[in-house]
């Protein structure tokens, strides 16, 4: 991971202080391994309903994974999401989303993302590239990445937060049901991560 996922160089820190350009940027995360805190993290999706009449959002309640904060070539992100945990706030729709028409949760119980490159500038904004696997199909996806903050938890543990967003086509992953008339092909993804240093 670049710059903001490991301590800033002295030169970059001095430049930021001298110019004041990054005064609002979060403090860099200390190097190490971080486990995702599922109670304070979430994976969300949003689509256009009925071909774009309105916007519809759902989430997955069961997410796990880890971040390794180090020099860029050693840093990485891995997230796993249980498809059976999909939550649309409607029981009948949840059942349909778990079916073979959509996530096929019995056959493909986990979707995952594994990073290949992370780039963040001193302001804590950049990209997160990697491979997204869903319904047994793996495709490269690049998320916009933002470092939200770094700080201590209630027990003094080191915590760090990030938000990653991207748009994918569901038909690329074999989710063809009702596209695009019932629900748009384009799906907006958002992953909110809060992780604890191990």
UniProtKB/TrEMBL annotation:
InterPro entries in the cross-refs: Lipid/polyisoprenoid-bd_YceI (IPR007372), TTHA0802/YceI-like_sf (IPR036761)
SMART domains: YceI
Pfam families reported for this sequence: YceI
Keyword Iron listed: no
Signal peptide, first to last residue: 1-23
UniProt entry keywords in alphabetical sequence: Signal
Keyword Metal-binding (UniProt): no
SUPFAM superfamilies found in the cross-reference section: YceI-like (SSF101874)
Residue intervals of the Lipid/polyisoprenoid-binding YceI-like domain: 33-196
PANTHER family: PROTEIN YCEI
Protein name, entry field: YceI family protein
Organism field: Ramlibacter aurantiacus
